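Researcher: Structure prediction, please.
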Amino acid sequence: MTSFLDTTPPRAPEGYGNLRGSKAFVPLAHVGLNNATQRHNLYHATTTIRNKRANAVEELPDWQQLRDAGSALKEDVAARMPELLLQFEEEVTKRGGIVHWARDAKEANEIIEGLIRETGETDVVKVKSMATQEIGLNEHLESVGINARETDLAELIVQLGEDNPSHILVPAIHRNRAEIRDIFVNKMPHTDESLKAEPAELAEASRIFLREQFMKAKVAISGANFGVAETGTINIVESEGNGRMCLTLPETLITVMGIEKLVPTFQDLEVFLQLLPRSSTAERMNPYTSMWAGITENDGPKNFHLVLLDNGRTAALSSPIGHQALKCIRCSACLNVCPVYERAGGHAYGSVYPGPIGISITPQLTGIKD
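Model: Predicted structure follows.
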């Protein structure tokens, strides 16, 4: 095996993927500032989320100690990345999975396209994934005649609305109920003007639409919240159950995982599975926690492929200060307390990673100096 760890660390390629905007922040920010509806939507959503999070965090007397433990574990991963990645590959392979190494977004997309082509399918379902947004996977697959259907409700809203995500956790945070209702009426074949802009009706409409996608899908694509070097385990946390459907029903599962998502041991998940739900969705525990390692006969997918993505991550690791951005577990709490994000909106940043973490991690991955 030839690993990208043995060569000059790559950066995210220019003109590819969703890390670089078409314009600078300031002119895009003015577009957001002038959108009164979006500003109202963001103010309401971020205020609600951060207040709920504050209450959830206050319940834990050792919250800061948990954060310190998570930070220390991530420092350990950064210091031992080559060793842990090789251990992870060995364990995944031992359990029947196939590991692919992708230097950058272009290489990752080509690998995934090839894996889908091998199945003969042209339709795939997806679990919400920041890594696939980062590399522009949906756009790439569409360009080669493969339809990738998002199954997370917020991602589905963005996709049907021919929009871009504006938040790490809640991609459609800039949309209100009336806008979502109009998108569904225009883009979902079983809806009509009788659909009301009520959460229960909107959820039911999406449920009917997505169930059809789940039942016919032979290929699914996921991201990963964590990967365990010790056991080859992949972990995904979610709230809707769409992820569980994608991870269990199709015959082929392809997971795209940024190499920084590693943790050394299975016990280390104890720390992160306490931190992530409370910090992101203000839940004591997320409703669905899925874990798998390789394949199991007569249970779940018959084929499992893991694409390990660099795309600037090893380059970021070489920075004494910048590597700290790779500690991020994508909880999005920094967006919900940021007054600039609240007023300018996520699209102003030009990157799939907006807000405070975006201005930290995007330059690390792209090598942008400004």
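Model: The two ends are 36 Å apart (CA to CA).
Researcher: Thanks, that helps.
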